[in-house]
Amino acid sequence: MKKVILTLAAIAFMAVTIATSYGQEPDKKSEKARENLKEAKSDVVDAKKDLKEAQKDSVSEYQKFKKESDLQIKDNDKSIADLKVKSAKIDAKNKAKYQKKVGEFEKENTKLKNDLADYKEGDENKWTSFKNGFNHDMNELGKALKDFAVKNEL
């Protein structure tokens, strides 16, 4: 019986020694994989920081654009109101045409105001496309208002 216990103990000791010796030295591939994983994690953290900064910049750029556009829309509202006041001085023959054109300006200005209010922030391409289109429409309306006011000076 002592022999059996002593043999089992020796076998167990050898098994434990062999099992622990394999776990001691990591191979080169696993070390490289761990390093790559650490680098990837730090890259992800950096990318998240960059994304947050870009979103903050985008939000601040959008807010700045919205404020500037609101000011332009208010200026357009003032110009339209001035044109409405001037319509009282126009003869009956041209008054309907004049008021129709002023109404078109007012609709376009309201459309721009609604487009700006309804815009939902998206990716960079969507923002650039919206901004370019909006600026184009805003500039065209501003030019049309000025030209109409100059052309119809009393």
Describe the structure.
The mean pLDDT is 79. With 154 residues, this protein is mainly alpha-helical. It is 90% helix and 0% strand. It has helices at 2-24, 28-87, 92-118, 124-151. It has a domain at 66-151. The chain has four helices and no strands.
Write the layout of secondary structure elements.
Layout: H1 2-24, H2 28-87, H3 92-118, H4 124-151
Rg of Cα set = 37 Å
Number of helices: 4
Helicity, as a percent range: over 70%
Tell me the span between the first and last alpha carbons: 126 Å
- Beta fraction: under 5%
Characterize the biggest β-sheet: none
Task: Describe the structure concisely.
The protein has 154 residues and is mostly helical. The protein has helices at 2-24, 28-87, 92-118, 124-151.
Properties at a glance:
154 residues, mainly alpha
